[in-house]
Amino acid sequence: MIDLHFTPTPNGQKISIALEELELPYRLISYDIFEGDQHTAAFGRINPNHKLPAIVDHDPPFGGEPHAVFESGAILQYLAEKTGKLLPKDPRARSVAIQWLTWQVAGLGPMGGQAAHFIRYAPVKIDYAIERYSKESARLLTVLERRLGEAAYLAGDEYSIADIAVWPGRVAAHTVNIDLQAQYPNIHRWFQVIAARPAVIRGREADRAIPAKYMQREAVLTPEQWSNMFGERMLGAVRL
Ligand SMILES: N[C@@H](CCC(=O)N[C@@H](CS)C(=O)NCC(=O)O)C(=O)O
Q1: Which residue, by CA, sits nearest to atom 1 of ligand 1?
Q2: What was the pLDDT predicted at 211?
Q3: What confidence tier does 207 reach under pLDDT thresholds 50, 70, 90?
């Protein structure tokens, strides 16, 4: 059994989808990050970075005590290695899969996240920041569009954890006002194919665990929610 510490954001969706694809039994533990559920000392022992998602595998492949894994990219790799699935066996294709996985966690994810921050949450609208992160998100989506014009999936012919990492990133397009269907037909085609996978449909059901207040274009937070997400309470969780 695997515990999935989850909140219904793109990073969380990667893991609920992967667990469904791999048919691994899991227990969903929901966090409301606006209310600060992620700042407890108990969660800090699972993820020292106090962010979602994280997993605890009670039956790790190397035996011994339950094993905690944080960072969505590391969790995807751990699950793929545990099961021998969702990563190509061919070393070249495997290397390509890891490159796109890393591209997502180091590029599309953080840049889309910063665009969302400045568009959705910043108390003052800073045009330079909005433009910088929106343009970079759009550039990264163009890179994705080109890749998906030359291959069915990110690693080539095979669906892999790279696709699972990138697929929820479609919300970056929504955030920066890109209409994928009209402007990025290859991403749109790939997106539709993956959206129809039964495991993806099941994995998305985890999103219903708590109210969906994560996708609003502009959010107005209470002072407590602000503190939990970006202020003193967030900083306090890791203070020395
Ligand atoms: N690089 C991390 C990002 C994790 C992350 O930023 N999680 C967000 C939700 S998507 C979170 O927990 N935010 C709550 C907070 O910052 O306090 C990953 O890929 O797992």
Answers
A1: 71
A2: 61
A3: confident
For residue 69, how far is its CA from the centre of ligand 1 (angstroms)? Answer: 14
Q: State whether the Cα torsion 94-95-96-101 is positive or negative.
A: positive
Copy the structure tokens of residue 124.
């003052």
- Any atom of ligand 1 within 6 Å of the Cβ of 234: yes
Q: Does residue 5 have its Cβ closer than 6 Å to ligand 1? A: no
| Pocket mutation for ligand 1, best pick of 7, 11, 75, 77 (most atoms within 8 Å of C-beta) | 11
Please, which pLDDT band fits residue 126 given cuts at 50, 70 and 90? very high
Mean pLDDT of the chain: 93
Per-residue confidence (pLDDT) for residue 167, from 0 to 100: 96
Q: What is the DSSP letter of 49?
A: T
